Amino acid sequence: MPKLWQNSGWKQERNVSYKENKTSPVFNDAILDTNPELFFHLQQQRLIELIRNEKIEEALEFAQEELAPRGEENQSFLEELERTVSLLVFKDVSNCPLRELLDISQRLKTANDVNAAILTSQSHETIDNIILVVLC
To answer: Over the stretch 56-85, which tens digit does the pLDDT of each residue have?
Structure first.
């Protein structure tokens, strides 16, 4: 598991939960507020984990309440949502044509996206702090 992912209180487990510790010094909530694509992919990963754990009703409810509104706002999100929800059609998702969504590489991609956003956020904060010091 990538180190920043661990340090930020994020989990890379079968049951993805967003933040365990909202006071994490590494993760800033503004990262999700300013990056709708990252937020969507985190939500998509949560949906994938619900499907993997065969929580079908919960997955459908989550997709309708959390992801469908984002799909209405963004065509690429809608296409990714449709692709992810298609997993529900298969009895054995491990042998379906979309099984790459269930692969560890999908989790790692999401983790890497989170880490990149954290690093970008931290570098902006550092630059902002340097500018403040220089101006004062």
So the answer is: 999 999 999 999 999 999 999 999 999 999
Residue 10 DSSP label: -
Assigned domain for 15 exists = no
Write down the pTM of the prediction: 0.71
The total of structural domains in the chain comes to: 1
**What domain range is 44 assigned to?**
28-135
